[in-house]
Amino acid sequence: MRASRLRAAFAAFIVVAWIPYAQAADTDMAAVLDAATQAPGPQLDVDPQMLADALECADATDTVRPGAVLLVHGTGLTATESWRKTYVPALTSDGYSTCTVRLPMRALSDAQVSSEYVVYALREMYTRYGDRISVITHSQGALEARWAIKFWPDIRDKVDDVIMLSGSSHGTLVADVVCLQKLKGCTESVAQQRPGSQFLAALNNGDETPGDIDYSSIYSYTDEIVVTSALDPSPALAGASNVAVQDICPGRPVMHIPMITDAVAYALARDALDHEGPVDPARIDRKAACTRLVARDMTPVDALINVSTYLPAGASIFLTRGMNEPPLMDYAAAQLPDDAYAPSSRPIRSLLSSALSLGPSLR
């Protein structure tokens, strides 16, 4: 009996003694979450655990370079489909630690909400790697990265480079076509990519390249999704280094999703990543880049796998039930110009502005 009482007393002592340490651990974890979700700028409304689960990192396998690279995928795709066989192995094998962020619903839901995932990812990576982060985006991913930088002031101090592949920064004709369907309409993020959408008006109002950040926009004149022209390229940003792959290799046909594996696009992205400042076409070895179809450190099989993602991307975009453009968040509504128009109310004007670059310039 005495022995059992002694064991019980000892167990009680251990429990009581452990409580402060357990409370301290809980407090530390709460502090970590608070640091990533409660920093300056709009409050992050997405559940912190969902934000954390969406971030996946791979450390460099060789010489570790300063900071790390965040990869942000585009509409209808996932982080795995876009980056697992392309930029992640290519960069990690060359000394860059990389992280991918999985945007909700294949990046088909409200881009304002998806941007919170990017905000969290950049804060967490800055803490983890102890240096400014570079961001490489594809398609719609440029919008989330730019939205995070525009509306969360602390993010500007955490980002070194923003490198955009086929970014839909000023909208896309395809979004108009999808949204003009009478039977289904379009998803939230597709509606937000219509030229003249409230989202784009708020995003592009004022300085398009805020902060002490190097912006590089890399695009193609043969892109069938982010349709662009030499006179008014949609991906181009005021204040950025804007380069088409055809500026390096005239006549080179590069479509939207294959931009991820294209040798010239990759050479341009690596130039921006590896050097101080944004991309500089003068540094590109044109002969080496133009004679390759697939990016260095990627294989033709990787390129074929990448092209195959057209199927899930197209299916998700065209089969998901339409919801149209969501209203702007309160913090962004103040950025909406008075003369902005809703493309759903002026479909013909919106369609023509996409095709002929006749719409209102926000640059």
From TrEMBL:
The keyword Oxidoreductase does not apply. The keyword Signal applies. Keywords: Signal. Residues 1-24 form the signal peptide. InterPro entries: AB_hydrolase_fold, Lipase_EstA/Esterase_EstB, Stereospecific_Lipase. It comes from the Bacteria. Pfam families: Lipase_2. This is Esterase/lipase family protein. It comes from Salinisphaera aquimarina.
